[in-house]
Amino acid sequence: MIPTKIFRMTEEEPDREAIRLAGEVIQRGGLAAFPTETVYGLGGNALDPEASRKIYAAKGRPSDNPLIVHIADRKDLDRLVREIPPAAEKLIRCCWPGPLTIILEKSGIVPYETTGGLDTVAVRFPDNRIAQALIRESGGYVAAPSANLSGRPSPTTAAHVEEDLGGRIEIILDGGPVKIGLESTIVDFTEGVPVILRPGYLGQEKLQEILGEVNMDPGLLSETETQVRPRAPGMRYRHYAPRGDLKIVEGEADAAAGEIRRRVRKHLEAGESVGIICSEETRDSYPEGDVRCIGSFADEEAIARHLYGILRAFDDKETQYIYSESFFTPHMGQAIMNRLIKAAGHQVITVQQKGDVNG
Ligand code: AMP
Ligand code: MG
Q1: Model pLDDT, residue 226
Q2: Which of 46, 238, 251, 327 meets the CB 3.0–4.6 Å disulfide criterion with 141?
Q3: Residue 102: half-sphere exposure toward Cβ, Cα within 13 Å
């Protein structure tokens, strides 16, 4: 156990001294967690193989799952990669700093420990002033996966980080709850047409507006994880998982609510604990069970922001069964449902009409 120091601050009033201290920790090979606009990251020196090994150990993460290198200056990208194709340059100009990670061929300075043995590297320039200041204080290149234990939902508050990594890392910079709450969109530029390896705040439509042709990794679309393997190693694991048995109920709203109510009743009769994830609009459809409202369909950013916190809350209460409505919202729906379906281990119940159930 190492004592974990936690420093509270806001983006408007960052604690310069704490950030400098965290930078020192990273410079000498240690680990510090910090807020970004997407989720909290667990940072170590990206150019130091030993620091990357420490990150894998602290998270309990398989070492073939590569880390994203975070920078705080566009120019620092040049040293990390062999070349920057025009399409990547164009996207960077539109979306950095922001929730976009790009994959390019790596240069010699990036150790294989950081890229999980791959010849490509993932790079992001986060849009959070605490993160940016820390990256500068750390020497410019911070490898940072989400600051959760492997297999748990990504952390959207410093309390989540402390829950998972307290006693395992030296410092947590607490910048309050994050703005987006889902991990960055990952776009691979190493094979001609750009490919989305992980959907995020920036969706396929938006990327197509900027770049023209953009494909979705077919591995993300397959029904089960065994048909086509996702290209991002991390998307192959059962990630973002709550401890309880989570199932998604899909279909027309009234029919889905009816199906969830019926199942909740059965669990309660059997003396089992059961939770429900629903929208503000459907909340009143559920008279029993532990009902968690994720947000309004009119505010999809709220739905994204609340997802991981709700999954963690069910873990805290050791809820045995969880049913979630589906949230195919216009822009972030792809990303929200990608995370939710993975959290559910692909257990989706499709309700065609009232009383007609598949799956
Ligand atoms: P996290 O560390 O939780 O932010 O997740 C990082 C994601 O980026 C994982 O799904 C990784 O597999 C993926 N990733 C990182 N580097 C690469 C790379 N070079 N090629 C493909 N996917 C990558
Ligand atoms: Mg992660």
Answers
A1: 53
A2: 46
A3: 31
